[in-house]
Amino acid sequence: MAINPGTGSNGVSGTTSNGKPARKRSVIGKAQTKIDTRDKVRGITKYTDDMVFPRMLYAKLFRSTVPHARIKSIDISAAEKYPGVKAVLTGHALPVAFGIMPVAQDEHVLAYEKVRMVGDAIAAVAATSEEAADEAVQLIKVEYELLPSIGSIQEALDNPDTQIHSTSENGNIHRSIAYEFGDVEAGFAEADHVREDFFFYEGNTHLALEEHSSIGIWSADQKLTLHSSTQNPHYLHRTLAKVLEIDQARVRVIAAPCGGGFGGKCDPFNHEIAVCKLSMMTGRPVKITLTREEVFYCHRGRHPVLMSMKIGYKNDGSITAFHNRTVADGGAYGGHGPASMLYTGVLQTTTYKMPRYKFQGARVNTNKAPCGPKRGHGTPQPRFGQEVQLDKIATHLGLDPAEYRKSLLVEPHSLTANWLPIATIGLKKCIDKVVEGSGWKQRRGNLPHGKGLGIACSAYMTGAGTAIYWNAMPHSGVQIKLDRSGCVAVFCGVTDIGQGSNSMLAYIAAEIFGIDPFDIRVVSSDTDITPVDLGSYSSRVTLMAGNACVQAAERAKAIIVEAVAPKLEVPAERIVFEGRRVFDEEDPNKGMTFAEAVILAETQFGTLGTTGSYKPPKWPGKYRGAGVGPAPTYSYCASVVETDVNPHTGIVSVPRIWIAHDGGTSINPTLVMGQVEGSVYMGLSETLFEEMTYRGNRNVVHKFPSFLEYKSHTSNDMPDIITYLLEDPEPNGPFGAKEAGQGPLLPIPPAVANSIFNAVGVRVDEIPITPDKVLRAIRAKAKGQEGRVGPMRFPEVPYPDPIVVATPDDRDHVVATGKEPVGATK
Amino acid sequence: MFPAPFTYVRPRSLDEALHFLADHAEDTKVLAGGQSLIPLLKLRLVFPRFVLDIGRLEELHGIHEHGAAIEIGSLLRHVEIERSELLRRAAPLLAETAAEIGDVQVRNRGTIGGSLVHADAAGDFPAAALALDAQMVIRGKAGERVVAAQDFFVDLMTTALQPDEILTAVRLSDMRARFGPRTGTAYVKLRQQASGFAIAGAVALIALDASKKITHARVAITGVNGIPYRATGVEAKLLGEVAGDSLITSASQHAADGIDPLSDIHASAEYRRGMAAVVTRRALSKAIQLATKS
What are the residues whose beta carbons fall under 8 Å from the beta carbon of A383, sequence distance 6 or more? Predict the structure, then answer.
């Protein structure tokens, strides 16, 4: 079913305010330096741990050494007496539960009834030095009554009576969902072939170089300020007020420059709240910087997900129905989990035509570090399964995997079976780019044994359609202040976590005002000073804050034009802003400097300031849960990975990767390339190296919470990456931009797996793909067994009855025939 | 990540160090290059009362050659071994092994004595010491004793060194003087990506006679077992035979005979067993090639 192309809620499409076609752009689309780069490379930028305040105290947390236990007693007396200790805090003082999602309020700042994982915080100490706090923490004594522990998805399902959270839906099933869009059984009946594959994707973590760090400052006038390395100051602001039971208006959160997030700094964390409380107790600033080991306990990384994918397809490869079952291992707490779980299913329809779709998802709790949003949030796992399965179908039908994918692509400006609105899609071009670049047609099939080429594609949201808590307010706001100095200050709640969102605002404002990005002062991520932006997650910032910035800047420009046009005696529509001047398009000598133009406007209208805001379009689906998945637009990506597989050691090396990204128009192509290549790095590293591993089930302790043993790619391991940016404008995005930060990770794991199959003819249906597994598959194949390593079964999961929803096509059919659709919709 | 409090002691001479150890052996950890001890301290896996820093004792530093006998001071850093002209000529295996250790920072700080005494299951030098028949020169209050490498490595991270003793030097012979002019050596390992430690590593020393018959075969394996070991099964298959590809391949299959390999996050026991054969084959092939050329 076709829908009209969106125009964006602001009607923004890069035209000038007078409605004429855009002049040649001077900033957007050009390689630009980041506005904060010079300070960063010279080591001048102050990250949270660099900040020092007079009389500041240092905090440390006492953490559980057992995975699951009732707390019988906590003895802090020796810690309190340790020299230099100013306060010791336990959980009784902070009984209010929290969690970033309203449906998962299951965390406490400090555990006082029960611990649920090794690393759970139980007490916090503030002392005059970090060393004293560390010593004092080791004097705390906790008595535990041990409970049986849950170490895996299977154990969680098998032991509902050993319940980790009493608030869970059912036993240790934290949350579950089931949808059926269209009659899937009918779809399977129509198919020429039906196959079911099982996949597993192990958990892994973000590995941001900066450990989490926070400083809480309670002032004598009863106001709280928190400096923190966070991606989401807005949600943190709300959580602090809730848990500390103080008025939101008295809480200020400042997101400091951030040394990497990748989703690992999205949740409000217990240490952030603990330093605020310790500051309230002592009247002194209190800092905490986590150790690397503690960052592994904070985690919130990739969920381990077990998947079953059943697909019906015709002899030509077209899909008749798809049934996707997932179980995610959520670890000890909820966090973003309910959303993560939904993302293991809802976006499966955004790439290939899939007329009927059934999704059953569940998330279980285990006594391990809590999982959450890592780059790609819940979608790399099912994307891996889906793209490997398509490769298997292509093999089965004798089709070229690249051409096969091209035959399946969803239409632009259409609705998927689960009512997601597809806007522009450049995936066909992406596939063509990587096929051509890699020499796919000439080389694939003609490479020696051990060398292979594999392809995979992906889609990702450009911003989520819904805020994390229900409200009808803007998702992003921008204020612009101009004054007689010629200075333009852009205020926005966005959080620059290194991706360059502050620079993005400067580029947009500079383009509209015809000045240089370095002429602009960007003030961001300070909840007292900047308008609300929901945060740096869901690839939402460029589109949402960018659109808000366009609106605010265009409004300011209109004010200046109103003052300048009469002065120059030129019609308003002829006024142009360019090269730090404001002038007559037809007689460029007739004009003035930008600063003079601002003075004119300030003289005439008084103090100058404008605002802009952005709210995503209403999503078309009307069923319960329809708000998860829709986005103003989706990015698309295709990648070809070349592998070199050693048949004796199973070691896979990757000499080259080609990746094409449909991210709309690049605001700054240099930064977009950086995001694409950074995503490739992260995807490849989790494909081949990274995993969160735990010791035996009875003692669920992380094996190697350190850089010493947790393996990640370094520059030594990185292949050559050949990146293509499509640059097709997206009408919903500012100047035509879509996302770039997450989508390009997604095709890498399946493209590697498919490439290994091409190289040595074996399937590793689980991530990470370690030499051990590759070699096992090769040896099995040599013995005449199935050359495959991966899950052999899918457990019995008590999913709820599916919510049955008619697809848009069913609905069209109803409109045409006047008959009621199959299944009820809500 | 703070070590437990300790007292730092820096002796001015080896005698002073031994004197201190005689009184405080059980409470003291000896610090050389710090590449193993510092992480252990920071993780509080050890919490000694004293850290005895012998790192600046000149008498433990330097390489001495007396005819065919070579004595390497225990404080020689990996990078110095890697670059020593003398060792590149007389014991190229040591220089090659040094170059494979960890990363540049580790090689700049770490010492051969520290590596041998720490006796990590996946350490690089212990296997080379086994293959070269190195002699460990040990000083204690009772005087000096010499222990053969074969007897030095007792168990995982456990050596014959007593708490009141210090490893002062490693003795070995000029390779060609000892095994003949046609001797070749090689060290091949599969690295654990994050740390550079061996998932499986093999040291091979092969000496040939004029008819290409193998007169000496030494194969030592690291990373597979709790302690490095000589793969005697492989050696027996090689000895007296004429070197060739099929011989190497079949002999290598015995690389983990009688061994119950380690199983951990980096590799399963089964994988390590397989890789022991692969690295042995590669090391033998390289060593034979070098022996043939010399």
Answer: A347, A376, A456, A458, A746, A747, A749, A750
What's phi and psi for A402, nearest 5 deg?
Answer: -75, -50
Which residue in B42, B104, B195 has the most chain A C-beta atoms within 10 A of its own C-beta, making it the best mutation to test that interface?
Answer: B195
Q: Are A496 and A524 in contact (CB under 8 A)?
A: yes
Is residue A782 within 8 angstroms of chain B, CB to CB?
no
Query: Rg for chain B (alpha carbons), in Å?
Result: 19
Chain B residues within an 8 Å CB radius of A710: 194
Q: Is the pLDDT of residue B21 over 80?
A: yes
- Please say whether the beta carbons of A795 and A157 come within 8 A: yes
Cβ neighbours of residue A81 under 8 Å, at least 6 residues apart?
Answer: none
Q: With the CA atoms of A541, A546, A549 and A554 taken in that order, what torsion angle do they form, in degrees rounded to the nearest 10?
A: -170
d(CA A240, CA A251): 7
Identify which of A291, A707, A776 has the shortest CB distance to residue B194.
Answer: A707
* φ, ψ of residue A602 in degrees (nearest 5): -65, -35
> From residue B101, how far is each of B110, B115, B189 by CA, in Å?
9, 10, 10
Q: State if pTM tops 0.90.
A: yes
Judged against a pLDDT cut of 70, whether residue A729 lies above it is answered with yes
Taking residue A597's Cβ as centre, other Cβ atoms within 10 Å add up to 27
The enclosing H or E element of A201 equals strand A193-201
Can you give the length of chain A in residues?
A: 826
pLDDT at A185 over 90: yes
How would residue A694 be classed by pLDDT, with cut points 50, 70 and 90?
confident
Half-sphere exposure (CA, 13 Å, Cβ side) for B202? Answer: 31
8 Å CB contact between A250 and A223 = yes
Domains (range + CATH), chain A: 48-147+206-298 (3.90.1170.50), 379-459+634-789 (3.30.365.10), 473-614 (3.30.365.10)
pLDDT band at residue A716 under the 50/70/90 scheme: confident
A436 interface with B at CB cutoff 8 Å: no
CB-CB contact of A329 with A203 (8 Å): yes
pLDDT digits (tens, 9 = 90+) for A607-659: 999 999 999 999 999 999 899 999 999 999 999 999 999 999 999 999 999 99
Tell whether A82 lies on the interface with B, counting CB pairs under 8 A: no
A805 contacts A825 by C-beta, under 8 angstroms: yes
pLDDT digits (tens, 9 = 90+) for B53-89: 999 999 999 999 999 999 999 999 999 999 999 999 9
For A705, phi then psi, to 5°, come to -75, 60
Please tell me which residue of chain B has the smallest CA distance to A291: B1
pLDDT digits (tens, 9 = 90+) for B85-96: 999 999 999 999
| pLDDT mean over B202-214 | 96
Nearest CA in chain B to A293: B1
Residues 6+ apart with CB under 8 A from A253: A225, A226, A228, A230, A233, A234, A236, A237, A240, A526, A527
Whole-angstrom distance, CA of residue A73 vs CA of residue A58: 25
Tokens of A325: 């079952």
**In the block, residue with structure tokens 């923490």:** A137
Decide if B40 contacts B30 (C-beta within 8 A): no
Q: Where are the alpha helices (DSSP H) in A245-375?
A: 270-282, 292-298, 337-343
Picking from B2, B39, B265, the nearest residue to A134 by CB comes out as: B2
Mean pLDDT of chain A: 94
Tens digit of each residue's pLDDT (9 = 90 or more) over B119-140:
999 999 999 999 999 999 999 9
pLDDT exceeds 60 at position A18: no
Q: Do B194 and A771 touch (CB under 8 A)?
A: no
List all residues 6 or more positions away from B64 whose beta carbon is below 8 Å from its beta carbon. B70, B71
